Amino acid sequence: MLTGRHIRIGTIFGIPLELDFSWFLIVGLLSWTLAVGYYPAGFPGWTPVAYWVAGAITSLLLFASVLVHELGHSLVARHYGVPVKRITLFIFGGVSEMVRDPDRGSEEFWIALVGPLTSLAVAAVFAVLRFAVAPIEFVYAIVSYLALINLVLAIFNLIPGFPLDGGNVLRAVIWQRTGDPRRATIVAANIGRAFAYLFIFAGIWLVAGADLYDGLWIMFIGWFLESAAVAQIQQLHLREILQRHRVAEAMERNYAFLSADTTLQELADWHILGTAERTFVVRDGDRVVGVTSRRRFDRVPRDRWPSTTVRDVMDAIGEAAEVSVETDLWTAVERLHETDADRLVVVDGTGTVVGTLSSDDVAAYIRSLGPQLATAR
Questions:
Q1: Residues 91 and 227 in one domain
Q2: The pLDDT of residue 355
Q3: Are 307 and 192 within one domain?
């Protein structure tokens, strides 16, 4: 299933697994590099087809190793009650997308550390397998490379700076000792930026020495690390700002009520779908049961409108949850992220619906805070 820039290919331990489009690029590039460079240099005498098959198998098994690494993070996170939204494989490896941060530094420590430990375990398994498959050169070559690259990945990920696992370990240690997650985040992110600049300068040095391919790759990795570290600091500032503002300030007050049993064809016949209303609170009798939007209607093929009711395309309140007008915006954003709902129903102190809130509403409100955000940076 296609979801934006990602392709969902299934689930593992109940966690959705997705491939970013960039994953196909890196698999092709790595397969080519191994087939025309690494394997011919280390194992001469194979046929061209054998080199390409070895390159492709190695690339896929490498990303299988990355998936095991991310599963380590995800399963420990779930052990501590942190929901995991998805695992995505992309050009730089993989990422476990957690709905929220752990509650304590000690929890983050183990969630972060288990990734490199898992890679070390995978490297050890492949290292042992080398002895068993030594008589079969083709298999020996693949297993040897995977043992080495998993060891390198484990060591690389232990660099103590965001966004690497070592940065999260460092943040967890500082957080646990000082009780100040904000300070811990800034320290880990800035150390991450320092390492990023070292990678960039190392890449420039290699390019100057005529090693264009390796130099550009190292510069690219440095740029990625620097961008991710800056994003961590910006997210911290954004979180602090949104925690000072309430849902009532950003919510959409322009909505209409719809009956749950109304079909989409009836809405079209009544010209409701062509009105300015894009948000709808759904009622079953006098009871509010959900929320939906024009976006949900547009996802349904028109030939199914006569048989599709509003109930079929709504987020039930039990699933999307309600949010109070007094809830801070950061908590509301986390709720949207956790539920994957288009909108939340906003209620006042008496439980009466007074509006709805979507990620677009929050984004528009953030844009209105432009000067405040600039000051925070």
A1: yes
A2: 83
A3: no
